Amino acid sequence: MDRTLFDYVDRIAIIHLPDRLDRYRALGEELLRAGIEIDNPKIMFPAPPMPDDANGFHSRGVHGNFLSHLEIIESAYHDGLETLLVLEDDAIFSDRFRATQSNLVDALSSDAWDMCFVGHSISTGLQDSTSGLVRYSGPFIWAHCYLLHRRVMPRLIQYMRDTLLHPAGHPDGGRMYIDATFTLFRKRYPDMICLISSPCLSVQRGSQSSLNSQLWYDKSSITRYAVRGARVIRDELWRKGWLPQK
What per-residue confidence (pLDDT) applies to 216? Predict the structure, then answer.
């Protein structure tokens, strides 16, 4: 039987706010379609940090999200893990991901790598790859579905800790969104091997943000359900490959 990406990694850590039951239920369905049940012992839901303020980040939610990623990576390193998959609770996967996971696992098992982003914002210009993965050193956004190898964890942890001491806009990286932190980390350490899926195999579900204030159409009872339905349709069309990347 072909190995899934979930079989390959030592731990799957999911960033989730307990009050977002909508996302928990949706993610459970998403993971089951991709080959793993949400109560699998490999999966953990760490208690999310709840900082009192933004502390120089864009918002209190962005601050908490950054700390969640940092604490998950630190925990994996301290526990001696070799491989870690980090998911945010709004991750969704394409049908192609479900069909080609074994190719990803073969590539990750046979070649050296440090970071691997299954979800990213690059929608054009990527090389074709039989493995489904290509090396990439440029900037991109999103950090909702990525893997880390143990060898990169100490440098990444130290870098993230250092950015907490810098003001926003610092040339070496300040307090910012986690995907921007990862972009500057890759730029600072060009020897680090970063792989991304080609094409992108995971995007973020259309849903109300947990990091920033509600948009007007999520607040209104008149528009909320119509928007929710449109998001569900859009997500399903993307899974099937009938819509371009968001």
Answer: 42
